[in-house]
Amino acid sequence: MNKCKLVIFSLVLIIIGSCARNPVTGKRELTLMSESQELALGKESDPQIVAQYGLYDNPTMQAFINEKGKQMGAISHRPNIPYEFKILDSPVVNAFAVPGGYVYFTRGIMGHFNNEAEFAGVLGHEIGHIAAKHSARQYRDQILTQIIFIGGLIVSKDFQKFADVAQQGIGLMFLKFSRDHETESDKLGVAYSTKIGYN
Ligand SMILES: [Zn+2]
Questions:
Q1: How far apart are the CA of 65 and the centre of ligand 1, in A?
Q2: How far is the CA of 165 from the centre of ligand 1 (A)?
Q3: What average pLDDT does range 145-152 have in this prediction?
Q4: 118 part of a folded domain
Q5: What predicted TM-score, i.e. pTM, was given to this entire model?
Q6: pLDDT tens, 81-99?
Q7: Domain that holds residue 41
Q8: Is 62 part of a structural domain of the chain?
């Protein structure tokens, strides 16, 4: 790849990317994933996740997480996302979210909660990841880093000597970003669960 290609690549990025205000931070940011792409990604991942773990058959519990989930989605920073909540048939204590509004709890974590407030905190944390568009931000950062990295290799021969160090630096940077996202989601989890009446 030469400089010309890099310029073209950057231009394409600017064209496909757009600037939008993040619903949580309120700041304008470059995004390479539109809301419809987020929704499409979720629709594509959901059947794979369900097939991998299977759904936990407990209508009462399912009705409960639907009720609380919809209630919290509606007061979140992205109330228009069609949130879906599922309980996976796994003993592992885990909860996670996928872009497009899909939130999963394992039967392991459902059995682990001591009270509704604990559940609400985790629910809010996962909705927080979706509301703050953490996946889209991570995706954008990965693409931008690749461009900067390739750019560095093209522009400077010296950069090649430091490529390994730079790789490690990038790794640390992403670790920090993902910690920042967890902290942001924790705050949102507290705020959202308070809003629907939990302490
Ligand atoms: Zn998290």
A1: 18
A2: 28
A3: 81
A4: yes
A5: 0.88
A6: 999 999 999 999 999 999 9
A7: 35-195
A8: yes
